[in-house]
Design goal:
Chain lengths: 389, 96
């Protein structure tokens, strides 16, 4: 199976061609936005923190920001720092340069002397980088160069019967072709992890998988939190999902039936190919952002209740098995697989339809969220910064 | 005569089926497995589209099965044809 993609200096292939304006800290978010808004061909993310963080939280933020810049859809990056923050913009710059040899620039608001000067310099650098980027052309490459992110959001009872098995069919095919697939949302492994554990490559992967699930479940128990409310959420419950286990059993079908080769942390780039578990939260936007940092160039997002979300770096193909939802939100959802529920089509038939859509989107077809310019991002924080309550 | 509705069973071992349309109390419900009708029962409750209907009696405290797996336990005794949802089942996992 072949697709047409953009070659990067690190040997990876992007299916989109973007200059990323990347704030190393929340204080640089608005400056970043103004630079990006002035220069077509750029995109940007908002940073929820980048300062006031300690320990593993710093490591997670650092890893994720680097991962976003290394994403194959990114041609080059302009890092915008404030100057005094925990996550130092110049450190990010050095690491991105060293690890990818992709174009990268760095500017700092305190060093440049305020917003106006930073924006002026940022726009100049971005304009030049976009011009260079515009000269490269797509070339035909094997689909094994693709990493697919899978995610579900606003699930209902149709998700586990139609949309997730359809995506699972595609996950299996892509993995057979040598590609990589991320399965995440650790909350939604609880009650279904025994099925995943049976498919792990070795004891180490099995232990890593069971450990992330157990640690999360223990955390819920320690905090005395009733997980119901988030999982299943009020919308999940309205859509017919009654328990966490029921949601999980439907959710894991997104990853298909392949052997699990590795378990990676949030935002971590895997060493292995094939099916990879990423430890991500159940919150969709955080989960997808982590997989983008892990190197996914494309995401298939299944939904029951419907959702408009997109991502600034990768396209999200949205599919639903709920006919009413598709009719209600057809301007947001790319593919309707409700024929599975009605018994009119099988999972294989709908899976082939989704596979073609994945190939088309890899080759440049725009998703509905991309056409609207939807670009939600949220980097997960494993610790909150400090006050008493 | 009430109309015949449909609900799909995902695994032969399941205790619940998923309603394929809005079901009213008293409706006749055909239980479909692999595109074949394997059972017929009477709905004892109104059931929303895609919500669950019991296909076997479930004692309070017993496991509830869907996809051939445990999705939680009954917190009330449930009769065939009753709606199965948050009022009568709950998660076992994620809590003490």
């Amino acid at each position: 199976m072949k697709i047409k993609a953009y070659k990067r200096p690190d040997g990876k292939y992007g299916i989109r061609n973007k200059v990323l304006i990347l704030p190393s800290v929340g204080c640089a978010n608005e400056t970043t936005r103004l630079i990006s808004e002035q220069v077509q061909g750029t995109t940007y993310i908002t940073n929820p923190k980048g300062c006031g963080q300690i320990g593993s939280s710093v490591e997670l933020m650092h890893r994720t920001l680097i991962g976003l810049a290394l994403n194959p859809n990114v041609y080059g990056t302009i890092i915008v720092g404030l100057g005094c923050e925990t996550i130092q913009a110049y450190d990010l710059y050095e690491e991105v340069k060293k690890r990818s040899n992709k174009p990268v620039e760095v500017i700092s608001i305190q060093r440049e002397g305020g917003t106006l000067k930073t924006i002026q310099k940022g726009i100049k650098l971005a304009r030049k980088m976009v011009e260079e980027m515009s000269k490269i052309e797509r070339e035909e490459v094997d689909i094994s160069n693709i990493t697919l992110a899978t995610n579900c959001g606003g699930s209902d009872a149709t998700s586990g019967i139609a949309a997730n098995p359809t995506l699972g069919y595609c996950s299996d095919i892509l993995i057979k072709e040598g590609a990589t697939v991320f399965l995440g949302e650790t909350t939604e492994f609880i009650g279904a992890e025994h099925i995943l554990a049976r498919r792990t490559k070795n004891e180490k992967v099995r232990n890593n998988l069971l450990t992330i699930v157990k640690n999360l479940e223990n955390e819920f128990i320690r905090l005395g939190i009733d997980v119901r409310g988030a999982n299943p959420s009020p919308g999940n419950i309205k859509g017919g999902l009654s328990t966490l286990e029921e949601k999980s059993l439907g959710s894991i079908m997104k990853g298909g039936t392949s052997i699990i080769n590795e378990v990676v942390r949030y935002g971590e780039i895997p060493k292995e190919k094939g099916l990879i578990i990423m430890d991500t939260p159940g919150y969709d936007i955080e989960s997808v952002t982590g997989m983008v940092a892990g190197g996914a160039q494309i995401c298939v997002f299944t939904t029951g209740r419907g959702t408009p979300i997109g991502n600034p770096i990768i396209p999200l193909i949205k599919i639903t098995g709920n006919k009413q939802t598709y009719e209600n939100m057809s301007d947001n959802i790319d593919l309707d697989v409700s024929d599975i529920i009605e018994g009119k089509k099988g999972i294989k038939e709908c899976g082939e339809m989704l596979l073609q859509e994945i190939i088309d989107v890899c080759n440049g077809k725009l998703t509905k969220a991309e056409i609207y310019g939807f670009s939600e991002t949220c980097i997960y924080r494993n610790q909150e910064t400090w006050c008493s309550w | 005569m009430p109309s015949i509705k449909k609900a799909i069973l995902l695994n032969k071992a399941d205790s619940v089926a998923t309603a394929l349309s809005q079901i009213q109390k008293g409706d006749v419900v055909d239980i479909i497995y692999n595109n074949e009708t394997v059972n017929r029962l009477i709905a004892l409750d109104d059931i929303e589209i895609y919500h669950k209907i019991a296909v076997v009696p479930i004692q309070s405290g017993n496991n509830v099965y869907k996809y051939g797996e445990v999705i939680g336990k009954a917190i009330k005794s449930i009769e065939i044809g009753q709606c199965v949802h948050i009022d009568n089942i709950e998660s076992v996992r994620g809590k003490k």
